[in-house]
Target: Thiamine-monophosphate kinase
Amino acid sequence: MLEDKTPQRTPLSQLGEFGLIHHLTQHFEVKQASTLKSIGDDAAILDFNGKKTVVSTDLLIEGVHFDLSYMPLKHLGYKAVVVNLSDIAAMNAKPTQITVSIAVSNRFPLEALEELFEGIAMAAKIYQVDVVGGDTTSSQKGMILSITAIGEADEQEIVYRNGAKENDLLVVTGDLGSAYMGLQVLEREKQVFQVNPNNQPDLDNYTYLIERQLKPEARTDIRELLEKLEVKPTSMIDISDGLSSEIIHICKQSKVGCNLFEEKIPVDPQFINVCEEFNIDSTTVAINGGEDYELLFTIALEDFDKIKANPNFTVIGHMTQESEGIHLITRANTKIPLKARGWDAISE
Amino acid sequence: MLEDKTPQRTPLSQLGEFGLIHHLTQHFEVKQASTLKSIGDDAAILDFNGKKTVVSTDLLIEGVHFDLSYMPLKHLGYKAVVVNLSDIAAMNAKPTQITVSIAVSNRFPLEALEELFEGIAMAAKIYQVDVVGGDTTSSQKGMILSITAIGEADEQEIVYRNGAKENDLLVVTGDLGSAYMGLQVLEREKQVFQVNPNNQPDLDNYTYLIERQLKPEARTDIRELLEKLEVKPTSMIDISDGLSSEIIHICKQSKVGCNLFEEKIPVDPQFINVCEEFNIDSTTVAINGGEDYELLFTIALEDFDKIKANPNFTVIGHMTQESEGIHLITRANTKIPLKARGWDAISE
Model:
């Protein structure tokens, strides 16, 4: 029997706006007790029952934030949700609902949106958040995604960026830089593909890095873990733009300085190998490459014993007086001022 | 003395993303008691103190939802906020906060974004809502605006689309169709301008219509008014897509039918004149033209006496059994099935 490999392509106009919204959202289940009314009216109704409401929003534009030539739509949907949940986690709050708005040009058939929503649904299921609203519209060019995440927290749980104190320890979850190197690998494969479309890429040596780029996770597990360890961070932020940029945010808002130790920065062995292959300095990438979506936080010195044995956490520095400035202490023990250069810095 | 008429144009790259956000949002004041933490961290923190949270979101794309050749940026900012507050009002809730995300291509200088945010700030001030978050990014083409509105309500106050009952009266606020005819006037002037750029348009006869299109208002006043009159609607929706489309939403979700009376539909005298000038049927426009942002709701028959003397309200029909269908009763007393055709219907 011959398989029909022609992909099915249903034009969006066939469903109309309301039909499309119904088609894409019909399988979303309500799981949060705080969701009183979800999709289907002018607005959603939420009940946080005395808890504080936490809100964050992000806008993702094709060609600026993602490239569909190597980003499968399902991964895009998943990642778009994760990026927003990460912001809620960075307040030490629990994400509970999201709204999802999308605009697409007529080059996208229904099947493309189904794939995108499959990724959104998968993230919603894994992170136990309800999709409670959104908007579906057309764009003149490309795909646009706007996601708003809503969460809940008790007032005393919430951690802001501005609470770091002198002598606090600087702690990071997971490892850094891999998402950026994953992107470099994908960019290289894209160029190879453009020269020779029949070339089958061998990506076995890069699986961890590519997964960190295409399917990052939000560290919503950290809130519970810290609660169990009885540690409340003094300040917290998520790493979306790069470690140095986030450290500077905490320092500026908390009015403190910081010493970051190069030798302490956690990285994956695969990451080191690929930096060597690309002939690129691994510390530069670990400090400036973004999109790791790990959490960066400060804790009081006396809490060190509570976290030191936990493999999720690495102490990478300590906070100083504001007048001392923000520095990287290299392996050679030289002191370099830290700058928020982001990704541009790496390609210089 | 000669005036320098060269407009000042500051490239966005001069400020950087964080500088830009600070520059544009520094004058936003917090006015709502429920806003605990606004812009400046990973997320905003809201406290509704036992009330329910109401959330709605909208995505506006240049070339699809607005045309900057006749929509001044200040008006666009104002309208983008109003459109979202209207959704909150349509739940009989009180809007309290918004988040604003924008993406712009490099054709927009800083001064353009300042103008846009001036309109956003003006709407926030007039409607007493706090701007608590957002995202500013670049786009490959044109301007994209995503606004999420948040509101509060006691559970017993909230009005859904699905509560209309047989024999309920169908009521609308304000008048209909003017926003659509305002758009027609602006489109005509745009074409005149393209032929002869020196032609100064005389828009005196169209001021009301143009204002309805460029600077619509959200009926956030209706909630308090109905409370004072001791009327709780059985269902409610705002008129964004056109009266017929919204009636059908209420009927489908409430499982009822409806008779809408042509002679009762409230329109402005200027609207009638311009429909004649454009040789277009005024009822067709009043029923299918959208963007009036008036509220459409149903009330129990026994509440009629409470609203009948109020100039804000017009009874335009009544709900029937679902099996009777949804009809327009014309001035000639013929019964025509109502269809949700939207703007396309008018140009047919």
In short: Chain A touches chain B through 62 residues (CB under 8 Å). Residues 290 and 348 of chain A are 16 Å apart (CA to CA). The first strand of chain A starts at residue 35 and ends at 37. The longest helix of chain A spans residues 178-195.
